[in-house]
Amino acid sequence: MPNRKRTLLASLVLTVAVFLAYGAVWRFDFVRYDDPSHVFDNAHIATGLSAENLRWAFTHFNAGQWLPLTWISFMLDVSLFGLSPGAMHGVNVLLHATNALLLFALLRRITGKFWHSFAVAALFALHPVNVESVAWITERKNVLSTLFWLLATLAYVRHAERPRVATMALVAVLLACGLMAKAMLVTLPCTLLLLDFWPLARWRKSKWTHVVAEKIPLFALSAVACWLQIHAASHDGLLWAAAVQPPGYGIFCALANVARYLGLLVFPANLAPMYALPANTPVLLGSLGAAIIAAMLGVGFALRKSRPAVLVGTLWFLGVQVPVSGLVGTGDAVLCDRYLYVPGIGIFIAAVWGLSSLRMSVSPALLRPLAAAAAIAMCALTFAQTRHWRNSFVLFTHAAEVSPDSLTAQKNARCALGTALARAGRHAEAIAEFRRILREHPGDAEALLCLGTQLLASGAAQESADILSEAVAQNPADPAAREWLARARTAAGQ
Cα(144)–Cα(156) distance, rounded to whole angstroms? Predict the structure, then answer.
């Protein structure tokens, strides 16, 4: 089959597979896990594109982050489709499919290996661990920023083929756009250096000082983004206080996460949007993670001449996840499926190129059906995993079941139950549930907000205003809490 037709057919297969795996998300609702602050309870986003809302996107922090392009993409969705969760889910799926195609095109261009590139792109497109990044509306920031990541890398490949100031400027612009979608791109300059080693081999063609120096503007952009993200997180009180953590907590969490992430990639079972934050320094699991890192790097360096892809993929996986590894903690998000969306590409590269170089006597007649069966299995697992995201009650009930040690999961499951009771018109039961949550989690801002709105719905305007005043005090940056407080005070005649 001619190369062009083969490429088009492979791209069509990837696209169809993504839409089959995520075919159910069009009917899913918003979830009460960051979706309120990022989308439907945020007046700047829920009212669509406008000059005032655009100004807000670039000049304000929200939920401990600065994501102007992500928020603008939500505003565009609202302007085009209304405040429709189905449409927003659809855009996420479309972006994920585009990312899979770009990854396929990128690897095929820089390596010349068609089936290797297709295998990596298929793993990225269909692996269940990426469901959180696609089926959760708030994680638009992940799929959108990765789009810019891949576009910037493709632009850099063009620069490597024919160095020009204009193409490097385009790389910088695309990096800046990606950073405004999510700060995860801070490690992009490092991945470009890895590609300079393999497969671009620029280290042999150019002086290493020049290869590094040309990326200084990119590292500067990443440094600014790091500062903005830390400032945004500290603005909302989400950074860990080092003084209250046990000695070495962040380092051992980061090392332990390597082992846990590899486990999720190899055996993607019991995936959840939140995992338990270690109560104590995870010394044992952290030591295991350190041993795994040493083994991976040892194998990679041993094979650096014969199979450089193994080393590059390993360093990609280990390096890209550093900003989200747990070294610097924000809230309770230390281990998350979504943090593997880009780092996982490194493991896929190392695995595909490493395994393909082994001299195995497997005939193509047997290999093709095995590969097809594996793809179908992953597609089915991903489809099954998406169903946990259809609404808040299902999501948090599942999270509480698979992560019973996570206080956040248990609390959110109770909040989801209370919200479900409220939607069914069972306000007295909902109020009792939220009071129970507050006895277990005193001062929890979300539970206070839910209780306050239910008290207002039941006619207890003054008590509602008192509760909502406390919710605003706990989270002054939450516009929804302020709006409901205004409604409660109005109803109470204040």
Answer: 19
Cα separations (Å) of 291 from 258, 371, 396, 483? 10, 31, 34, 51
pLDDT (tens digit, 0 to 9) for every residue of the chain, 494 residues total? Answer: 568 899 999 999 999 999 999 999 999 999 988 898 899 989 999 999 999 999 999 999 988 889 999 999 999 999 999 999 999 999 999 999 999 999 999 999 999 999 999 999 999 999 999 999 999 999 999 999 999 999 999 999 999 999 999 999 999 999 999 999 999 999 999 999 999 999 999 988 778 888 999 999 999 999 999 999 888 877 665 555 444 567 778 889 899 999 999 999 999 988 988 887 777 888 999 999 999 999 999 999 999 999 999 999 999 999 999 988 877 655 567 789 999 999 999 999 999 999 887 655 566 667 778 888 889 999 999 999 999 999 988 888 888 888 877 777 777 777 777 877 787 778 888 888 888 888 888 888 888 888 888 898 888 889 999 999 998 888 887 777 888 899 999 999 98
- d(C-alpha 300, C-alpha 310), whole Å: 5
Q: ω before 199 within 30° of 0 (cis)?
A: yes
Alpha-carbon 306 to chain mean position? 33
Task: Name which of 80, 70, 284, 102 is nearest 178 in CA terms.
Answer: 70
Reduced to 3 states (helix: H, G, I; strand: E, B; else coil), residue 330 is strand
Classified as helix, coil or strand, 378 is helix
What is the C-alpha to C-alpha distance for residues 262 and 283, in angstroms, rounded to an integer?
18
In the chain, the domains with their CATH numbers are 1-239 (no CATH), 241-358 (no CATH), 392-491 (1.25.40.10)
The whole-angstrom separation of Cα 211 and Cα 320 is 20
Contact 482, 456 (CB under 8 A): no
Does the global pTM surpass 0.85? yes
Nearest to 321 by CA among 347, 301, 298: 347
